[in-house]
Amino acid sequence: MGAYILRRLLLMIPTLLGIMAVSFLVIQFAPGGPVEQAIARMSGMNVEALSRITGTVEGDFAGQSGIDTSGPTAAGSQPTAYRGARGLSPQFIAQIERQFGFDKPPLERFGMMLWNYIRFDFGRSYYRDISVIDLIVEKMPVSISLGLWMMLISYGISIPLGIAKAVRDGSRFDVWTSGVIIVGYAIPGFLFAILLIILFAGGSFWSIFPLRGLTSANFHTLPFHMQILDYLWHLVLPIAAMALGAFATTTLLTKNSFLDEIRKQYVMTARAKGLTERRVLYRHVFRNAMLIIIAGFPGAFIGAFFGGSLLIETIFSLDGLGLLGFESVLNRDYPVVFATLYIFSLAGLVIGLISDLTYMWIDPRIDFEAREV
After folding, report:
1. How far apart are CA 249 and CA 247, in angstroms?
2. What is the DSSP letter of 282?
3. Has residue 72 been placed in a domain?
């Protein structure tokens, strides 16, 4: 067991290195990096602000190198501070590149990033005056709320329903629940979210549930029990929209897994020995059938915790990690992009290891350590 865990932990190093290297390489060819974004923002500022910024920077360079930055003036006119027509100076652009660290070769920047990430030093956001780790911690409660509640509700309903469908395979209950599940699976989560808003959040019919955020404006003034109810009330629509697809997938996966186990020879032998159907189902079938459910848990958890909540967070104005990652990619806020990628890649690898250990705990016959690497 110890040797297997050590091998898995050591394999995480080249895996993380490969993920970060490929992502860093792709970023190098992506147009519109942070320097271009900053230049575009500076160029789009009002004349007074742009003149103040460029004037200060160019004045510093002029004082150091003796460069005349006053610019040409027409005959008989007074010198003007406006530089918008001439664009930003090369010196100012060079200072922006130094600010973002793009004055160094790509290989050196990649090496510095890896060294910092080993120490969990993710730097500061390019466009927000806050460290990346503080920014992630600030957004994490929203994503934790969505991810954990979605997983609890989805698995809490899907597994019992899948078992019931497997036991009643071919019955009317199985048929009509399958119809509901297939419809739910076919509807995208974001489309269902919009439907819920139209129906229940004041869109066109009823105004029952809140539309924005996870808490009300007067949340801190409410009694404790009312705060809990207010929090749960805000979660109803986002969780319902997120759990729809996962609910359908997990239910059908559970049913098919149990059906496959129920038809095996050892189940017929257990029944022939006089064991009750309940004992056969939960003592023998359950442990084997749940292996495939456990195998899919890490991916489902990471997807629900981060990527799966992106559109839902946007639609319901929930400021979580999904929305943060999306906005960071659009704004080319690379420290935030790489930090979230690094953290969730590491979390996925660790959860995958935990999943394998859970395999061995549920079924001692499984021995990963005996396999050749």
Report:
1. 6
2. I
3. no
